[in-house]
Structures are given as C-alpha cells and as structure tokens.
Amino acid sequence: MKIKAIYLYLSLALWTVLLLGLLKFTQFNTTGLGITLVTLTFLLVPGIFLWRLSKIEAESLAVKMLYVISFGFSFYFLINLLGIVLGLSLLQVIWIILILGLILLALACFFDFKKTWPLNFEGLKSYSFSDWFLILLALGGTVVGLASINAQIDKIIGDGMFHLALLQKVVSADNLNPHHLWVTKTTSLNLVYSFPIWHIFVGEISKILSINIFTAYTQILFPMAIITFMVVFAFLKIIFKERFFVLTLYLTFLVFLFSGIFYALIPLRAPDSFDRLLLLPLVLGLTVEYLFSKSDKIFPRALLVSGLAIFMGLIHFTQLVDYFLVLLVFLVLFLIISKDKLIIKKLGWLILTIGGLTLPYLLIFQGVNVYHFFLYNAAAYTGDNFVNKSYHDANIIYLYTVCSLPILAILIKSKRQLIFLISIPIALLLVSWQIFGLRTFFLKYLGEIFTIRAITDIPGFVFLGVIFLTIILILSLVLAKLPKLLQYLLYTFLAVLTLVSVIFFNNSLNIFVDETIFNPKNLFFYEFFEPIVVAIVAITLIFFILIHFYYKKELIITEPKNKFSFTFFTFLLFLILSLPYWPVFQKTITNSLNNSLLSDREIPYFGDVGRIGGQQTVTFLGNLPPESILAFSNVNVSQIALLYTKAYVFEYPYGVTDFTASKTIYDPTMTDEERLQFIKVNSIDYIVTLKSAESDLFVNSSHFQKVFENDYKYEVKTKKTSYQKEGDFIVFKYLP
Hints:
Helix content: 55-70%
Strand content: 5-15%
Shape: globular
Mean pLDDT: 89
Number of helices: 31
Largest sheet: 5 strands, mixed
Radius of gyration: 28 Å
C-alpha cells in the first residue's frame, strides 16, 4: 500500500489548523490534553518536514521517529539561539517559526509532490502470540508510567524556582539579549545557562497557548515524558535491533522507573534533567545510527548530530563534556578492537565538527570566564570528600552496569554497536570513580557538580536489562532442551508458584524484591561486589573460550528460538519486580487531583505568595520598572518575588543560605554614608525590608522613600502541624 506524500503533508497542515481553531474558540489551551497535543504538534511537524528534506534514510519506524524528534528540537533551538544572538523579541521569534514552518511545508510538498510513502503491514502477519504479548506489555507499562507522571505533574523539583525566574525573563523581556534573561542586572551570564534555548521553547508554548509560565512549565512535563519514552525505545532499537531484546530492555527501563513510581522523570523540565534524561539518549542514539549506518553520506548526519550535541551543551554544559569524553573513549576502544576506516572517518568528522564549533566560542568569547572557572575550582578544592568516589557509595544500578560489561564485551565482535554502549559507562565511571586518578583531576578543575553527576548520565537501566536478558535467555535455553511434556509441567509449576507467592506471601516477596534488586545499598551485593565481578568475568571468559576455540563458533545475537519460553520468563520476572510498587502507585493515582487530561490545569500562582503578602505584593512587583534592581535580605522571599516581577535582583539568590553583600546593606552597625555609597555603587533602586528592625534603617533617611507597605499574616506548614506568622513587606525607593 502506498500513499502520496503530499496527502500526508496536507493532513498535517489541516490538523494544525484544526488544533488552532480549538485553541481559539474553546478552553482547550488550559487542559492537559490540549497542552500535550499542541506541544507534540509544535515539535514534530517541522521535524517531519526537515527529515524528508534531508533525504536521510532509516531502516525502522523507531529510527525514523528519532530523526523527526532530532530535527524538531534542532529547528527550535537554532531559531531560539539566533533570537538570543540577534536580540529579537519572543514574539518575533514565534513569527519566524511560523514563516519558516510554512516555507518547510511548501518545500516538502514541492520535492515530494510525486513521491509516495509505502505503508507495509505485511510484517505484522508474522508476529506470533509472544510478539504481541510483549508489545502489549510494553504499551501497558508505558501507560502506567504516563499515569504516574500525570499524577505528580504539579511537583516542581530540580531548582524549579530558579528556572521559573529565567522563564519569567524570557516572556517579559523586551528582547532576548542574554543580559536581559538573567535574574541579576549587573552579573554576566554563567557558563551553564548562557543560552537558555530550552526556557525560550517553554516560553513559546506559553505564548502560543496564552497560558502563564507556571502552567506552561508544569504541563510541559507530560509531552516531554512521551518524547522520552519514544527516544529510549528508539535508542534501544538502534543498539540491539532484535525486537524481543529491545522490548525486554524497554521493560527494564519501565520497571526501573516504576520502583520509584517514575519520580525520576518529574524534574525532566529542568535543563540538567532534560539534557540527562532526554537529549543525551537522543544524541547517543543518533550517534550510533550515524556511525554504524551503511550509508557513506557523512555531511547531513554529522551536522545533525554535532548540532544537537552543541544545543545540549548550550542547555546544560556538563552533558556535552560527558558526551565528548564518551566519543574519545569509543575512539580508543574502536581503534583497539576494529579497524573500520569509514567509522573512524565518521567519528573524526564528528569530533572535529563539535570541537570546531565550540572551542572558538569558548576561547574567544568565554576565554576569561573559562580561565577563572578553572582557577576558582582549583582554589576551592580541599580534597575528595564527595560521594560516588567508589562503588561503596554509588547507587546499586551502577554496580549492575559494571557486572554487565563482561557480558557485553564477549558480544562486540558480532555487534559492533556494543563498543559504543560499553564506552558510555567506562567514560563516565572514569570521571566519577577514582580510576587512574582522573576523579581528582576533574574535581579540582571542573568542580564537584560535574564530577559527582557524571555517573548519573549513564543509562543504567540498559545494563541492568542486559543482566535480566542474560538470565531469561539462559532459563529459556535450558528449558528448550527438556522434553515438551516436562516443559509444560515446569510452566505450570512456575505459574502456580508465582500465583501462590503473590496471594499468600505478597509482603515477604515485596520486601525481598525491594531489598535485593532496587535497594540503593544492598548489603550482600556491596559486601561481595569485587568477588562477584571476578566471577562474572571468569565465567564469561570461559564461555567465550569454549565457543570460539573449542566449538569454533561465532557468538551471534539472534531472536530467541523458543519465543514462548522467553516471553513466559520475561513476564514472570517483570511481574515480580513490579509487584512491590503497585500499592504506592495506586495511592499516588488516588491522591492526585490531575487524573483527567481534560481537566483545567491552569495555575494562577506558584510558590507560597502568602510569604510575601499575597496579591497586593504581586501587583506591586508586577508594576515595577523592568530595569529596576531590588535588594532583599531574605533568599526565600527573593526567589518567590522574582516570579512576579520584570525587575532584577541585586544578588544571585540561589544555592546559598544567606546573601553575602546584601547582608551588608541591612547591617545596623554600618554607617549611613557607607550604606549609601554601597547602594550607589551597585545601582540598587529599591530596598525590600521584611521586619521593623530593617525598615528602621531607612524610614527616617531623606535618601529613601517608602513606596509600598504590606502587613500580612501567612500560614507555615510542617509535617506535624501548621501555624500562622505575621510579616511585613516594606519597599523603599532610593533617591540619589
């Protein structure tokens, strides 16, 4: 069956028009479903057009979707970057997106006018019961994951207040000049958040849907979670290809997250987590597809991979450094194991492209900042006193990763993509663990955050899945050697045993699973980790020698011959692994107010505005001149206030318990002359006081005018009780 490509393009255009009509004449824009559909359409439609225009071929639907997502993100991030560099307004950037989107539609229709897209469903006829069962199991697990995320969508973690403050600047600034997007007027942007292209993307969704930043920032999580599930599946498909293995590894991903009720994906909207959970797997999958594809057309793929990697670095720089280290480790391993000149050539172009596009910027425009960054870290380094310096204080998932490496190593001759997969943990464990003394180097010059977080960039679920996959294959192979009657008896026995365990020994089974598989500090595993690794290495080595030198065969990864047996053990394993967490999942869903995607999700406020005096203070802050600089004596109040004003704060209020310079302004021992000089030098326009002792310093001075006062009460809640406190929010304007 074939469909003309132009019909598909026109269908996309019609869908977009219908969606815009719904947004115009209904309240669809504030529902979870409306925000999700708009975001996915906004991202994927340009991605489809660009993928078709690039003429990059892909062997499976999953890989095609990876390209579409990659082109979609690249389209917006490039335009957002140009908006920052050229100092365009957010509205101008949105108009550019609209115009370019129409141009892409016209070009795609022109070049694909006579072309057809094959829709081949013949392959589905060969799917057995086992195939469909695993597919439905994976789809069911995905639905459970999305339901868990939807139930927790209002939780803001991962420096949410800080990123909302940046988002407030994006939607309220006259233009997207970098210095207009920071929270402090007098401080240059730091190396990590210099180009907030992700914040601008969320701002664009906010403007298109006519919703405030709080609604946009919370609700962007659901569509990004959908994209994350798609990216992870495509990444696994590129590495392993075999359907049964991909589905088993994807189920591992789901059950691993289910053990925490998918809480690990809740910070997905924060740049660091967005990079780590979505963009990094996207870039890694795209890299493997680029390196190991049979095509010798280097330029379009290399440009896409390097461009997306650089965008990842612009969003949060540490993931780009990690990615570059993975490429270097892969280069070393590949040169040792294989001599494929085309892959080495592709890798060389990729490294040169990324280096050529990033190093000039860092050296020319950020050279001084980079130099001071290294000096500051070196001066602040007092020794290695941080977590993850060995397996003793690392999460158990990374110990599973180490245990899986010997298993993967004996398979790399038949599946060279595994060399790249192995390179990921090796590179990042070299950073996070004290191997060859590199951890000390990274701690000293790149800092604590980069060094201790590198280990979390390892997609550990893949390596845990490899262990599960090995166990399932061994069990199914052993069972296949038995007579058919004995096989059926064992199937029945294991099914009954599982059922009895679930009904009569549920609590004991749950405790056993939780404590032995997912417990971050499994005492047995940590106590005997080194001999376990030695045993796995020895067993895999013996197995390799027997196969290659005694039986003189090649180890080839193929689909399991006994599919029913493989599916049976897969189902039992993941049923048992997920059982302990069903009560928590049910409680999470029951306690949630967000079960329906059709419900109104609009959030008028974020943060406890009662702590700053409620609507009265919010209105005052919103009416302050955009170029104003405010000085606060309290970090928490400053963070909340920044969400409701276009003004700036005098001092960066995040990651510190107390201000440093701000405390000087409110110091009663400071003379009036010293205070006035300090305020003048730092161009401070407004002084915010929160108690009478502070306001007394300014109330009788001719250099300050009281412009706002709000006496209020607010509720303080603790785990055990709640009580009311009185507060005041008094603002003085400095009169030069």
